[in-house]
Amino acid sequence: xxxxxxxxxxxxxxxxxxxxxxxxxxxxxxxxxxxxxxxxxxxxxxxxxxxxxxxxxxxxxxxxxxxxxxxxxxxxxxxxxxxxxxxxxxxxxxxxxxxxxxxxxxxxxxxxxxxxxxxxxxxxxxxxxxxxxxxxxxxxxxxxxxxxxxxxxxxxxxxxxxxxxxxxxxxxxxxxxxxxxxxxxxxxxxxxxxxxxxxxxxxxxxxxxxxxxxxxxxxxxxxxxxxxxxxxxxxxxxxxxxxxxxxxxxxxxxxxxxxxxxxxxxxxxxxxxxxxxxxxxxxxxxxxxxxxxxxxxxxxxxxxxxxxxxxxxxxxxxxxxxxxxxxxxxxx
Length: 332
Known about the structure:
- By secondary structure, this protein is of the alpha+beta class.
- Among the domains are: 9-70, Structural Genomics Hypothetical 15.5 Kd Protein In mrcA-pckA Intergenic Region, Chain A, CATH 3.10.290; 190-291 and 318-330, Pseudouridine synthase, CATH 3.30.2350.
- 17% of the residues lie in helices and 28% in strands.
């Protein structure tokens, strides 16, 4: 939970009896919701003092020390404001929650210099946003490990062809606090996925490590030396066309995790041009049938639990409407 003060300067008095430790470590653990590397940059930029004197990251703090941190104002880089109709689910002084439509690219990248969500956000706020570059991975939907462009206000992202709910931070403190929740896996994320075939169990868990494909560096695959990755699912509906609608919960955040895990399970997402396999479907699908349905997190300033649900977009509903549901009694 963040302090109510919005002043950019923070003061911290080290408690008497505190064990001596590095300044950057103390600030990251006890004072600020920033990464240790971010705090080190603040120190290197001369924005941190210890007892009114300049410091270095490795300097030790002791009980009774007074630490002052000047937090720089927000800044934006590499993107221009572009008016855009945003489907806003919630907004306050600290954050914004929206429903991203399919087809919208989240941040500028080669081939997508304009017309991205970042451009639309800059226009919506009509002011600069904080740039966050060290963002966590997720269904790749979240930011992957590769050092791509810096991104304005983004805590996570969704792939161009994935629709659904996203949270946007309006200040560096809010962004850092939310990033910590993603990294600590205290954020709840549920997706809707329409897949080929019918899983053998109504509820299941896929525990299979994911890493970059050895054959295509732009893709990911299940591999023994990959990062631990866990996905849970339950069947919501099965269809006569041998398809299933699943509710998917991410317990870890790896790039393309849902798409890779269900390809590995033998039930790839319908409409997925990358991981969908070579077999033809009996129906056509406009995109990968994946929707970030629900998102829950703790508000960084009030500590209140926030829960949001993104309406199922039209193309996803139309895809479901063309299928014939099997009665619940026929589920596996």
